[in-house]
Write a structure and sequence with these properties.
Elements: H1 3-29, E1 35-39, E2 43-50, H2 62-80, H3 89-112, E3 115-123, E4 126-127, H4 133-160
Length: 161
Amino acid sequence: MKKKHYIILASVLLLVLLDQITKQIIVKTMDLGEHFTVIKNFFLINSHRNTGGAWGILTGQMTVFYLITLIAFVLFYYLIKEVDFNKKLVYSIAVTLLIAGAIGNFIDRILFQEVVDFLDFYIFGYDFPIFNVADINLVVGMFLFAFDILMEDVIHAKNKD
């Protein structure tokens, strides 16, 4: 196994552990629907379960999410080949976060047929959908992945001129 694979494995394990531990704290210490305010009118911890995807789309369609996750894992297999923490740091971090996020929510879907969500924000009066650590990994990973692609395009365009 190459050094990059150990870095990915260790990072993914840590991120998945953080995700699963925070979810278990919520499950063990709070009733479903129970919440408490962390920052008034901005941030709550809210014990919530989601049988769908982001914003509750495809509620109850676990087979669809299993399929999507399996396809993502195949894609991750190919993306890992390009990981290089020395030359492609942003890309490498993005792929690592995406893998960790996918695994974190996949564990919930396999074990409980729902995902434990608990981070609840009100942003400019909008009650943002409740999410978890795995979701953060997925969103930040996608942002970094898109940023890396855009930067590659900019560098490529500059080199053409």
